[in-house]
Design a protein that fits this description.
The protein has ten helices and seven strands. By secondary structure, it is of the alpha/beta class. The structure holds S-adenosylmethionine.
Length: about 230
């Protein structure tokens, strides 16, 4: 353990919210990295980034963590050209697939990390940077002994709040009711966030979130869907 690790809160030090099962990339996804990473990708360096310089303009920045195959991010960024989008995902095939979609529409308002979002937030995103943050259908870690691996934890939402611009919006969604209840519990207790709908309330699904792959999977299993909207207090 490095000295830096020792100074981190317990959650940040030990817990990873993902297991990397790198499925094989298809030739098209591999080609996406070869051809498009220089344009859409940001290599993790562990130092604060100047996103306005990367995008070549000063626009509000929307971040999505764990975008999966990227369909929701592709859609949202195409229909919201006045803002810039930062996607963070550890799963290579999903990043490749999204880059192909972005290249097909010649997108200029999206950049991607293939890295752990907790580390990106800690080291690359300066305080006060984000206008909006989205975490849609994060891994629910169903088993009680795995609940601590959920990305939504008090320490994590405090870190996230510190990276938000004043009045910045956080949008969470899940299809797993016990995780929805846990998200609500963590967020209601967080001093840096206030529920946009009023204390303890879930939100209606906003029109900017299209149905995602994991949402469809949950709906097929008969799950409900819960959206939560919080503003930085
Ligand atoms: C259940 S999937 C949901 C994907 C997508 N949002 C959807 O709704 O279809 C959760 C995703 O979060 C990613 N993920 C989990 N923890 C992460 C982290 N710390 N940093 C970046 N990505 C993460 C996983 O690789 C996975 O693709």
């Amino acid at each position: 353990m490095t000295h830096d690790d020792a100074s981190k809160p317990e959650y940040m030090r030990r817990i990873r919210s993902f297991v990397l099962r790198e499925g094989r990339m298809t030739p098209a996804q591999q080609r996406a990295f070869d051809e498009h990473w220089a344009r859409f990708g940001i290599d993790y360096t562990g130092t604060a980034q100047d996103y306005a310089a990367r995008f070549g303009r000063q626009a509000p920045l929307v971040m999505e963590i764990g975008f999966g195959n990227g369909e929701a991010l592709a859609w949202a960024s195409e229909h919201d050209q006045a803002r810039d989008y930062l996607g963070i995902e550890v799963h290579g095939p999903g990043v490749g697939r999204l880059m192909n979609a972005l290249a097909a529409r010649d997108a200029s308002n999206v950049r991607l990390y293939k890295h752990d979002a907790v580390e990106v937030l800690e080291h690359e995103i300066a305080p006060g940077t984000l206008a909006e943050a989205r975490i849609w259908f994060p891994d629910p870690w169903h088993k009680k002994r795995h609940n601590k691996r959920r990305i939504i934890q008090p320490e994590f939402v405090a870190l996230l709040a510190s990276r938000m611009a004043p009045d910045g919006l956080l949008h969470l969604a899940t299809d797993w009711q016990p995780y929805a209840e846990y998200m609500l519990e963590v967020m209601e207790a967080a001093p840096d966030w206030r529920n946009q709908l009023g204390p303890g309330q879930y939100a209606e699904k906003p029109e900017w979130r299209i149905e995602t792959h994991f949402e469809r999977r949950g709906l097929k299993l008969g799950h409900g869907v819960w959206d939560l909207l919080y503003r930085k207090a």
